[in-house]
TrEMBL record:
Originating species: Qipengyuania benthica
EC number per UniProt: 3.4.24.-
Chain ranges passing through the membrane: none
KW Amino-acid biosynthesis (keyword) present: no
Co-factor requirement: Zn(2+)
Pfam families per the UniProt record, alphabetical: LysM, Peptidase_M48
Annotated keywords: Hydrolase, Metal-binding, Metalloprotease, Protease, Signal, Zinc
Record-given protein name: M48 family metalloprotease
GO molecular function: metallopeptidase activity
Amino acid sequence: MSTIKALAASSTAALALALSGCATANIPGASAPITQSEAQTGAEAHPQLLAEFGGAMTGPQAQYVQQVGQNIAVQSGLANARESFTVSVLNSPVNNAFAIPGGFVYTTRQLVTLMDNEAELAAVLGHEVGHVAARHSQRRQARSQQNTLLGAGAAILSGILLGNSGIGQQIGQAALQGSQLLTLRFSRSQELEADALGIRYLNQAGYDPTAMGTVLASLAAQNALDARLQGRDDARLPEWASTHPDPASRVQEALSMAQGASGVTNRDTFLTRIDGLLYGDDPEQGVIEGRQFIHPDMRLAFTAPQGFYMINGTRAVSINGQSGKAQLTLAPYGGNLENYVAKVFADLGGAQQQLRPQTIQRTTVNGLPAAYGTARVNSGQGEVDVVVFAYEFSNDRAYHFQVITQPGGASAFTPMFNSMRRISAAEAANVVPRHLEIATVRSGDTIRTLANRMAYTDGQLERFLVLNSLDANDTLRIGQKVKLVVRGR
């Protein structure tokens, strides 16, 4: 029996856990309708969010998600017409979903691929609508815990205390953008309240309400797998890699709220409708293969240091480890590398702090003209080193790493700095995207033989099990639909 199924079949005592002040009965049955002000706020933020999160997907899979999302959103009472809600599938490889005032609801394509049925899709989208119905964004802003609807906090570089200095805020903002995270982070009590509202919407729409618990369990399992594959010690997402508190801690509460109810899941319909969805990195945004990042359009590649892991975003790729954090990104280039490096430092320092490197040195890396500098900064809670290492790819195009470490720790990134290279047209052409493929179990198929078809060189079995909410001891039945990740379509 899979871990997720075991959680769903837990003892009655476990399922009867109290919800600590977030019981469904304490949540208002109807929500105040979307106001004109909220609609305007959402409409203004919508194009910015689409741009930051890789744009909106189009095609039959996106249309299907939109239909399910509108059907569940209308249960909230925020609006009576399904057309009042804009539901978007974002072209992002991050497992995330959110909603903003005005009826705008979002899920990444990656999170959709993790789901097992239509009820789970409705649960995720219903949860996000619950945040809007409960006016959580407004409540968080009123407490001054975020500055704006798209507010990006500092203090995201875990393990390095940056305080409220200009450098901390600037690098913090950049890291949030690079990880595609510009939405609010909610408290645990608000997450539980949104879970409860989402379960109410599932019931009203006729879906199996236990889907809220099972999709949270899937997300927790994926987080744990990502941690193992990336060499992290804990199974939680880093603070900057999720807008939601750890889903594993919310599974039992969600299952408890849903006990005794029933409804449809529409599993086979869901799997058929998401067949072919892009999985993982989009080559147009660059791809991560093990410790290597390769961007076929920018024609570059580099290798992260041993013990570090990467997160790909629309505007930057982040490199993370215990001894420091880095990003690869770009800025306007006027043909002079020294001026480019100096300008990056100045931008990182911001208005509050003048940030200049001690020196800017020139070098060549794999045939690429390069320049770099280091500045030691007092963050208010201790000193840190900031490094900018830039490469010229043409007269009007340059890229750079921006790095922050404890004093003297920049040497950990030297192998990465020296690995930057220009790739050939043939190497760029060999970067083929991964897609989701829905397969039907045939006679002779086993979990192991199907897992061997996963388009990865590591963790094939683990990836297959988590993707399908299965345990290694489960038995497949002929005719059962399962998800695979394959190269190309």
